[in-house]
Batch of 2 targets.
Target 1
Amino acid sequence: MSTSERREAFLVENIFQPDVWDLTYTFYDRLLVGGVQPEQTDMMLPNPPEIRSQFFLERRELGVINVGGPGEIQVDGHHFTLDNLDALYVGKGSQSVIFRSKNNQNPAKFYLLSCPAHQVYPTARMTKEEASPLHLGEQTTANRRTIYKYIHLGGLSSCQLVMGLTVLEPGNVWNTMPPHTHDRRSEVYLYFQVPPGQAVLHMMGTPQETQPIWVQNEQVVLSPHWSIHAGAGTTNYAFIWGMAGENLDFTDMDPAPIETLR
């Protein structure tokens, strides 16, 4: 693929726009990714024609992480407050899901990831502080980072959705190095906290045929099961990772040793 073809196929831009839904349906494990930034009005979860359902969550589950100001999500009349980097799992069968900001001068930015579900799990909230932070990496390899796991085995229960985020420390730029693939599920990345004038070089492709995509702040990369997903920024940054597929095992991956990369 050319650069423009690769970006067209795997990059999602501009997911946060005031009072506008941005949703992208993918054929990678039928993941649906998007965002909403309520400012002047509450935003009800729509029912995209691609899923051919009576309502969005008729046969799906949903994970939401707020990367903006304080917000609230109302699920079938129940209210859940989400501050910055808090998460909400919304179970299959929920019919009314409404998103709002608490301050339109500092709006919430709700990042959404959804996949098919065949069992009902309870809607539940988790704060960043409750998300079992795990410290990894070394300063000498420029990849000191903290991983927060929200929807996973041992966290918020789901049918097949896995979701969390990684924050790199200042002076560190590499994520997921050495890289890996996992044939049993697809993955989606939202890069955020990328300062103006900076960017992340996301590496995808097979381990022996890697391909780059330059990613700006609050843009999404789709990562198929056959692709590595590694990246280096021109500064430190953060990213939300989400997966769906055969299992909920966070450590299920097939490593690609650095010396084998091409």
Note: The two ends are 16 Å apart (CA to CA).
Target 2
Amino acid sequence: MIDVHAPHQSTHSWTDFFIHIATITVGLFIAIGLEQTVEHFHHLHQRYQLEENLRAELRADLQKAATDYRRFAGIRAYTLDLKSAVTARRAHEASSALPSSTDTRRQQIPIAPSIAIWEAAKLDATVTLLPTDEIRLYNGLVLQHTLLFDAINDFQHAAFALESFEERFVDSPGVFDMGYSAPPPNLDKMSDADLAQYDALLSAYIKSVDRVVIRVHLFDTVARGILDGAPDYDQLMRRAFPEGKPVTLDVPPPTKESTYP
């Protein structure tokens, strides 16, 4: 026979039930709130860390730009000396001396600026932690970076065309745009048509150098605008490229990392 006992406690009332539910609900809200608070501060830390990493990369890019200005100045000066010798030979004038075979001015490799931190932030989606205006600032920088690499690509093609022409007159396993020694050819071996072609290739190479330098300068200018605290893209453009003022290449490169905080 089943022995049925009355419950030791009285049956809970509806009031007790609702108090129990309310207690659980409040506990859940507190737990969710704490979790969201922790996540908020974690994202805030990630954002500040990303911003500092981006600024550190821009400061390093300004140092690279300072080096590139010097290297491209050497490349241009060397090529102008070579072009002067070719021009004099074409005019049947007393030839200017060719650059020495030990002259290393055109054996320079540019140090292109990096946006690796930005690209990594896009991949792991931490870029979404930045405010919209700040994302627009860096999109402007990315545009300048893309245009700079287009100019570097043109520069390398111009160098290859020049190297291929010179190979017809002097065998050299080196390629000067990759840092190897490549002595200039003997102009005595060239016909008038060859000299004219060489002159044109040298002119194209010089202009490709000019385009890269201008693009380095524009990237540099936008990077400085961001580091100087431009609050949005429109302000950045006004700071970087003031209306009524021509773009100049006389912006002094930074000499110390402390130039920008």
Note: The CA atoms of residues 145 and 219 lie 6 Å apart.
